[in-house]
């Protein structure tokens, strides 16, 4: 049985305006699910509904088959066994690190009056988050990264069946984020329950999550593994939101074996991947930067209209001569002048299912 199940969940804060609508979602035991989407798409609202800080306007939420929320009422947060880690860390300033971590156990009467760092569950959580040396320190003496470790340890110690992390790395320095991503992985491994992780950073979601749910304007557009979302987005919105690529108008001109067609665009014919039931005719093809090559010989078919240095390589934006307004991106080892004519070839593409 799925650990957590949302059935047509909607949340309306104000009349006429739905922050979330029609959310159907299963979250499996132990799963790492990222909620990804632009600002205002409803990620935090979904997190708050799972935590029990808000009740849905419509639909139901089940934890291990038990209904915890519906429009008729909601099980309060303290009875859901959910751990929440906020972006702001929300540590108690007057408690040392070990006391902060022990707080939820004390509040529930699960431990006696012994020093916090002697409580085995606290010592274990501190060790897992690399905080043994900091047990007696106070939050104001810690760096941002260390405070985030304390917030994670405090969540871990509760052994929640669901941990909710709201943009935990957003306020940290970019260099620190790499290290912290490793820590988030360790945190997930140490959890028994599922992890729902809110972010608007697609590289974070791709690197960490088992599955990613992409939200826009309160709707769940697609939920899939990072690989499938990137390779086989179901809609142009998802195709554009994740990774670097462009969507072109093409004509599917011939079937080329299971799940493959030949597509024509601007006089070029190239191979694309499709769903099994695709048919000949007009369609829209996603072409990623990695699928475009610059060739040394051939007929010139595009020109450089923009370029960006990525460190070690350049990202070029290329306009196709025979498809005005259509552009592709590719990576190149050296800089090319704007307006420079090039020969490009397209090695692969994906026919966006909603386009056929
Ligand atoms: N308490 C509230 N009262 C009224 N409207 C709200 C409230 N909380 C959120 N909203 C609205 O609901 C929508 C979704 O907001 P939410 O905070 O869930 O988005 P988000 O994806 O987490 O955004 P961000 O990435 O900017 O944090 C927004 O239009 C927001 O203005």
From TrEMBL:
Domain ABC transporter: 4-242
Gene3D superfamilies linked: P-loop containing nucleotide triphosphate hydrolases (3.40.50.300)
Top-level taxon of origin: Bacteria
Organism encoding this protein: Acidihalobacter ferrooxydans
A single Gene Ontology CC term: ATP-binding cassette (ABC) transporter complex
InterPro entries: AAA+_ATPase, ABC_SmlMolc_Importer, ABC_transporter-like_ATP-bd, ABC_transporter-like_CS, P-loop_NTPase
Stored SUPFAM superfamilies: P-loop containing nucleoside triphosphate hydrolases (SSF52540)
Tagged with keyword Nucleotide-binding: yes
Plastid found in the keyword field: no
Protein name as it appears in the record: ABC transporter domain-containing protein
Keywords annotated in UniProt: ATP-binding, Nucleotide-binding, Transport
